[in-house]
Design a protein that fits this description.
The complex is a heterodimer of chains A (about 280) and B (about 280).
Chain A (H helix, E strand, L loop, with lengths): L1 E5 L7 H10 L5 E4 L15 E15 L9 H5 L5 E3 L4 E3 L9 H5 L5 E16 L2 E8 L7 H9 L6 E4 L6 H7 L4 E6 L3 H17 L3 E8 L5 H9 L3 E6 L2 H9 L3 H4 L2 H17 L1
Parallel strand pairs in A: 1-8, 1-9, 2-7, 2-8, 9-10, 10-11
Antiparallel strand pairs in A: 3-6, 4-5, 6-7
Chain B lengths: L1 E6 L7 H11 L4 E5 L8 H4 L2 E9 L3 E4 L9 H5 L5 E2 L2 E2 L9 H5 L5 E4 L2 E10 L2 E8 L6 H19 L3 E5 L6 H7 L4 E6 L3 H16 L4 E5 L6 H13 L3 E5 L5 H8 L9 H14 L3
Parallel strand pairs in B: 1-10, 1-11, 2-9, 2-10, 11-12, 12-13
Antiparallel strand pairs in B: 3-8, 4-7, 5-6, 8-9
The chains are: A alpha/beta (about 280), B alpha/beta (about 280).
Amino acid sequence: MIVSIASGKGGTGKTLVATGLAASLDRVQLVDCDVEEPNAYLFFPDRKLIEKAECRVPVPVVDEAKCTHCGTCSDFCAYHALAALPSQVLIFPELCHGCGGCILACPEKAVSEGSRRVGEIFRAKSGKKEIIWGELSLGEARTTPLIRAVKGMAKGGLTIVDCPPGTSCSMVESVLGSNFCLLVTEPTPFGLYDLDIALKVLEKMNIPRGVLVNKSGIGDKKVYQYLEEKGIPLLMEIPMKRRIAELYSRGTIFVQEMPEWKARFRDLLKNIEELVS
Amino acid sequence: MKQIAVISGKGGTGKTSLVASLAALAKGRAVIADCDVDAPDLHLILRPEIKEKREFLGIKRAVIDPSKCTLCGSCEEHCRFGAISGSEVDPLLCEGCGVCKLVCPAEAVSMVDRLSGYAYISQTRFGPLAHADLFPGEEASGKLVAMVREMARETAASRKAELVLIDGSPGLGCPVIASLAGVDLALVVTEPTISGVHDLERILGVTEHFQIKAAVCINKYDLNPDVSRRIEDICRERSIEVAGKLPFDPAVVEAMVLGEPVVELGGPTAEGIKDLWRALEGHL
């Protein structure tokens, strides 16, 4: 079973929940798909790195000996990653989506495919748990190929996916294929507004979902009214406590210092399993 | 005209609450741009009155005409995004490349424009706001960020505003890079947590990569004073100004619930933001 943890708004506590849930379970894979700012692995200081791989994406390579500078490739490219000038073809690799269209379109068979590095993928062990994450190279814009590669490292069994914030392509790619998505929100106007957008994405994708309200006690009650009106299950609440925030700030998974939360996280998983079946 | 982008790396460090207050302090002198287009919240405080609405056409999408499709499977075989199954295109997976159209022997595929959101110019009590709605799950948020920034610049030029203040998105990928292009200063809002430090170092790597001047604001600095000192050390080593230090203050959420900038409520955060604004004015 794959359970993804997403949010819309940033900083609502996705990583707090993903690491808290993982630490409450025995055997689990924790996959951090926030490749821009991966944090989950920081909470497992005893981790042992067991695998490290490059993530490479395809880029066009033009054989100038065969190229007639006809411009078919640059006319085809929807991303403006190639520009055919009278005497050469300029390539902008960071704009390329790797669709392979330029290779198919070239009448001279002058375009072939090379590759370039866009990030790294890591796999580490902490006890019986596995933590998998990706790190986007600085200055790279496109996250989806790396997210796909990170997810591809998971081996089945119970998998928790920590997603990036937002409701755009990175979030969609991260939750794709999940059996369930747990949306973490905070009871504030910003939290509610972004939760609503994230729920619309999951509805489009037909992914079963539930909500966890973090930092409960702050803000207002509107998120609760919203969930009730829409009939969306509220699966857990974590109160706003300075102690939880301080433990998080030090890189300690709060359930390790507040073990009464482990049973609550296990109940949360049981509830999710029931909702999925 | 100067441009300042407020970014963070880590999400939820307080970018939007800060930008709302800076907008109040800059009243009349700035055009505000909400460039967190897939989770925009600034409008909840600034309560804009929309003056102009433009359609945002994101990437195109493939549409297969089932009456022409022979189900030969060529498009499905060549699509690298796994977006095609039989004669159906999954709009969430299609990246609009056009390979399916290129390989289709029956001319059954067309590439159609896709309305992916709207961009707006609005009036607020603190001045003009450029903002947008990206439809849930759409791609091309970087392209929409560029459109919002262009609208903000046009408005700033026509009103002779001296500043465009950009509320960025978390992370450091496409929408953040689009928010940063050509700005005079990136104000990075961080928090004293190990996640905050990790993400700060990465986002400062990005501002250095693009040779953009950065300054840092430490929010909730009293949550973990040791980590806050580490952040100050990191900034010193990189010769980056710590332009502001804001305490943990319940007034921030109270202000959000009231729909007001925290700077108008008063209290320690409000005073800290005023100091920060004076430091930023030095960059204008």
